[in-house]
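Researcher: Go.
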Amino acid sequence: MELESKFKHKSTFPVISMADIVLLLLIFFLLTSTYLVQPGIKVRLPKTAARTAAAQEKISITITKSGAIYLEDKPVQIANLPYLLKDTAEKIVLIKADRDVTIDMTVKVMEVLRKSGAGKFVIATTPEIE
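Model: Structure:
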């Protein structure tokens, strides 16, 4: 004796429920991606139209608006830079100076870096919005 069911087996896939899931995932990723913050020191970089980036190994020096100097996100004194930077002749020194920092302070840091053996300098900028 065979039992018959009142419910038929559907052979289609419920596309509406899949669209709801995709929409919810999209909203989730959009909301969470706006809260990603780049770690580091807050510095307003000067703007430029050039959009090139160096691909070599870099050492990062940050100069804040208040005049504080950071080597790879660690605070240092300008007098200690030559002792902390050794064998930098092959590396590029990336200088992230706040746009409100005087050029005098930036040049002082570059001079100390040059005396410690650094040969190549790059000043970090942000692209101009056209």
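Model: Residues 47-127 form a domain with the Nucleotidyltransferase; domain 5 fold (CATH 3.30.420.270).
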